[in-house]
Structures are given as structure tokens and as C-alpha cells.
Write a structure and sequence with these properties.
The chain has about 160 residues and is an alpha+beta fold. About 30% of the residues are buried.
Length: about 160
């Protein structure tokens, strides 16, 4: 089983490779990051590490045994005991339950290590795989939304059950 690791400075090359290799795949379900993201990746990576050091976000990479990135699972906008969950799994790693296990693992980290009591998430209606991952990880639908002009759903996951 691949393991989650908090984002570190030395992850930059593998993370950039992951984002480049999966750019077209990700664009089928989430907005493309744009060329600027890749052109200024090093500065962006440093900024993410600074946000993490400040406690505003918690970034995680799902790494295989060789250190290749299979996915990202992030908690952003940490405030008032809650955060927004976001994740991406490499195209070559989909369909094996990795996303569900990684999201479940981050839920546990959020409760036990980061002291959070709830998580929020959202996905588009045309991404049923993401909807299944969130449901399997204990999230419930809270309403509708629009994500970059596409209809979507919002989700909520209390974390109190993970503290027992």
C-alpha cells in the first residue's frame, strides 16, 4: 500500500512530474491549472510549504515504494476546526481504491494530528468516482454548488467518530 507523506521541499521534482504526466487526465474532471502553474512551479511549491508551516494547510503526497507520486490529498483553508479536502490520483493508479484509502487516512490525520473536527469537500456532478470516494470516506452531501461553471455537490464530514 502506498503511504501518505506530508509535503516536503524534496518532493518538488516528483510532484511536478506527477502534475505534468496527469495534466490532461485531471482536466477531464477538474479545471486545468494552466501553463503559469508549471512555469512557476518552484515558487508555488515554496509557497505551499510556507502555508503548511503556518498551519493554514496540510498537504500530503501518496507515494509508491520508488517515491513516485500516485496522488495528492490536501487540507486547505484550515480555520475554526475545519478544512476543505481536495485530492487527485494519477490516472495509472485509479480504480484500485487508493483514493478512498488515502482520503480515509487523511480524515484520521485531520482528527488526531491536526485537531480538526470537520472537513468539507465538493465535486462536480460529472465526476461520479469522486462522489463515491467521498461517500465511502464518510462524507454526506450538503447541497449543490457550481464549480468553474459546472454543477456540483458539496459534502461535509464530522471527524468526532475518529477520536474514539
Amino acid at each position: 500500500m502506498p503511504l501518505l507523506h506530508p509535503l516536503r521541499p524534496d518532493h518538488a521534482p516528483a510532484l511536478l512530474a506527477f502534475e505534468r504526466e496527469n495534466r490532461a487526465f485531471f482536466a477531464t474532471t477538474v479545471p486545468d491549472r494552466g501553463d503559469d502553474y508549471f512555469a512557476h512551479f518552484a515558487a508555488r511549491h515554496r509557497a505551499l510549504l510556507a502555508e503548511q508551516a503556518a498551519g493554514d494547510c496540510h498537504f500530503h503526497l501518496l507515494l509508491d515504494d520508488a517515491g513516485a507520486v500516485l496522488g495528492r490529498v490536501n487540507l486547505v483553508d484550515v480555520a475554526d476546526g475545519a478544512a476543505e479536502l481536495g485530492y487527485r490520483i494519477a490516472e495509472r493508479a485509479t480504480g484500485r481504491g487508493l483514493a478512498t484509502r488515502a482520503v480515509q487516512a487523511v480524515c484520521g490525520l485531520a482528527a488526531r494530528d491536526y485537531g480538526l473536527t470537520a472537513l468539507r469537500a465538493a465535486t462536480t456532478l460529472d465526476n461520479p468516482a469522486s462522489q463515491r470516494v467521498l461517500t465511502r470516506a464518510g462524507f454526506t452531501t450538503t447541497g449543490g454548488t457550481t464549480l468553474d461553471g459546472r454543477p456540483g455537490l458539496t459534502y461535509h464530514r464530522p471527524l468526532t467518530d475518529l477520536l474514539t
